[in-house]
Amino acid sequence: MKRNVWKLIARPNGINFEEALELVEEEISDPENGQIQIKLKIISMDAGTRMWMSDRQDSYQPPIELGSSMVGVCLAEVVKSSNPAFSKGDLVRGFGEWSDFANVDAESFLVLEKGLDCDEAYLSALGLNGWTAYVGVMEVGKPKPGENFLVSAAAGATGSLAGQIAKKAGCRVIGLAGSREKCDWLTNDLGFDVAINYKEENLDQALKKHCPEGIDIYFDNVAGDILNTVMQNLALNARIPLSGLLAQYNKEGARLPGPENFDQILMKRATITGFFCPDFLDDGPKIETLLAEWYKDGSLKFKADITEGLENVLVAYKKIFTGENIGKTLVKL
Ligand SMILES: NC(=O)c1ccc[n+]([C@@H]2O[C@H](COP(=O)([O-])OP(=O)(O)OC[C@H]3O[C@@H](n4cnc5c(N)ncnc54)[C@H](OP(=O)(O)O)[C@@H]3O)[C@@H](O)[C@H]2O)c1
User: Fold this and answer.
1) Fewer CB within 10 Å of terminal CB in the chain, N or C?
2) C-alpha–C-alpha distance, residues 269 and 165, integer Å
3) CB of residue 330 inside a 6 A radius of ligand 1
4) According to CATH, what is the number of the domain 128-278?
C-alpha cells in the first residue's frame, strides 16, 4: 500500500516552507508489534513545531533530521492494530506525521470518546492548546480576581483560550491581535474586556490608556519588541508566563537580544517563567476534567480555521506566521 507524507528536505529560510518540505509517495507496510496504523483525519498546525525544522540543538526538542517526516499532533482513526489496547475504528490522538497514513507507536496515542459535537475540539480547547493555556494562566500566572491579564497572539489557538481562562479566574483581560476582525471576535464573542490591534495602534500608549495601574500578568506567546513594550508597563509583582517566541521562530540562526527594558524585572519585582505544558502531565486528570466541563457548558470557546487536503498543509502552516489564521489552524483530510 502507498501513503503520502511531507518530508523535511532542507532547513527553511523564514516562511519559505515550499523549499524545505516535499510531499512524497512511499510504501507503507503493516504495523509492527505494538504499533497501530492510523488514517489521519485532522492535523494540528502548531507554531512551536517551526523550531524543530531549524538546526538549533538547544531547543526543548531535538531538530527533525533532514529527509525525515514532518511531525505534528493529529486526530486519526485506527485502521490496523498490532496492539491489544487498540482496535480498528478507534478514534485516537497523538503525535503523528503530516501524512494520510502512518504506523505509529501506540503508547504515544490516546483513545478518545466518539460523538463529541465537534472533533476539532480535541486538537484545541481539549488538546495541547487548552493545556498550555491552563498551565500558563493558572499554574504559572497564579491570577487573582481583579488583576490585569494581558495575552499576545490573543486570537490564536493558545492565546484565545488563555484569555478565557483568565477571565474565569476573575481577571480583567486584555488581548493583543493583528486585525480588527480578530479584536472584534475577542471582545464580542470571547468576553475579553479590551482588544488592542497592535499593528495599528501605538502599543505603549494603548497599554498606558487601558492599564494605567500596570499589567499584573503577561501571557507571552511572542517575546521580541512586544515583550519589551509590555515590560515598561508592568505592575508591582507582575508575572510573565513565557509560552512561546513567535518573534524568533523564523529567524534562522539569529537569537533575539534580551529586552532593553530588562531592568523593569527588578524595578517591579517581576518574574518571568518559561513553561512547557508536557512538564505538567501529572496534573492531567484535573486539567482534562476542567477543560471538558468548561467546553461542554459552552464557557470555553474556540474557532477552527480549517484548510482542506494534505496537499495544502503549507498554506495552512504559513497562516500561523503571517497572522492570517483566526483561532486554531487545522488541516482536514
Ligand atoms: N510552552 C508550551 O508548552 C506551548 C505549547 C503550545 C504552544 N505554545 C506557544 O504558543 C504560541 C502560539 O502558538 P499557536 O500554535 O497557538 O499559534 P496561533 O496563536 O494560533 O497563531 C499564531 C499567531 O501569532 C501571531 N504572530 C505570528 N507571528 C508573530 C510575530 N512575529 N509577532 C507577533 N505576533 C505574531 C499571529 O497573530 P496576530 O494577528 O496577533 O499577529 C498568529 O495568528 C507559540 O509561541 C507557541 O510556541 C507553547
Assistant:
1) N
2) 25
3) no
4) 3.40.50.720
Output the CA torsion sign for 55, 69, 161, 207: positive
Q: Which CATH number fits domain 2-124+304-332: 3.90.180.10, 3.40.190.170, 3.20.20.120, 2.30.42.10?
A: 3.90.180.10
3-state SS string over 162-225?
A: HHHHHHHCCCEEEEEECCHHHHHHHHHCCCCCEEEECCCCCHHHHHHHHCCCCEEEEEECCCHH
Q: Which of 214, 196, 212, 122 is nearest to 159 (CA)?
A: 196
- Quote the ligand 1 centre to 78 CA distance (angstroms): 31
- What is d(CA 27, CA 120) in angstroms, rounded to the nearest whole number? 29
How is the chain split into domains, by residue range? 2-124+304-332, 128-278
The secondary structure of residue 276, as a DSSP letter, is -
**Mean pLDDT computed over 58-86:** 94
Residue range 228-268, pLDDT digits in tens: 999 999 999 999 999 999 998 888 666 777 899 999 999 99
Mutation test residue for ligand 1: of 201, 221, 242, the one with most atoms within 8 Å of CB:
221
Tell me how far the alpha carbon of residue 94 lies from the centroid of ligand 1, in angstroms: 21
pTM for the full predicted model: 0.97
